[in-house]
Amino acid sequence: MIKVEIKDIQNKLLEIIEYFDAFCKENSITYYLMGGTALGAIRHKGFIPWDDDLDVFMTFDNYQKFLLVAKNNLNADYYLQEENTKEWPMFFSKLRLNGTTFIEEDTKYRDMHQGFYIDIMCLNKTSKNLFLRKLQFLAARIITAKTVSKKGYITDNKIKKIGMKFFSVIITSRIEKKLTSYIRRFNEKKMDYVGHFFGRAKFPNTSFPIHYLGKPKNVKFETLVLPVPEKVEKYLILRYGEKFMEMPDEKTKSLYPQHAAIVDLNVDYKDFIKNNKI
């Protein structure tokens, strides 16, 4: 990996989120910082110091609107890497910056855009009923086992390897569509909960009352002001526990390794791959 300071990586991510924020405002699309990015906003007023990614989520209707508008209206400097495509089989999307290189270990040899990015996640409506929520979660986990295998996910965990292989074989495109429809079956209905089922969080940390989102609350994030859920503290307690404001120990930090394997802030990934052995 080319030596790049974490702050330089974070500054490039700030460039992307600044554009994304303006684009969403211009098109009346509501989004919120999520996960570790929301935690960083509240605890550090910016990035968690060792973070090299930036995540947002949206309700299903805002997510669909974003994908529709972004397809034809993005600035030429940006690229929409849309979910559930041959290029990107995962069930979330990315906004990537052209003219940069950000290659991860498990996508090193994939034919795909590999510039700097932010992740754009979709929240799906769900039920108060714990059992029904768990079924949606399990359906998403089955799909994820297949999609991470297609993406090239690298793991030493034998159980994960077996699961990825098993579901990549038995989950046909038809079954995947049915599972996706099941996960999204409440999105046109009035429901009290939403869930982020395609993330890395365990089931108890994936869904929460929809009123936690509420009207976006603007908070300081490095040099910008960005939106978090209205009841962001309740969301962070659900996601990380009551002591979310405390710095984690080294063991917890090790669960969140940096994403970048190869980085170049100023060279397009196509040129980088062409001119370097990776």
Automatic annotation (TrEMBL):
It comes from the Bacteria. Residues 24-241 form the LicD/FKTN/FKRP nucleotidyltransferase domain. InterPro entries: LicD/FKTN/FKRP_NTP_transf, LPS_cholinephosphotransferase. This is LicD family protein.
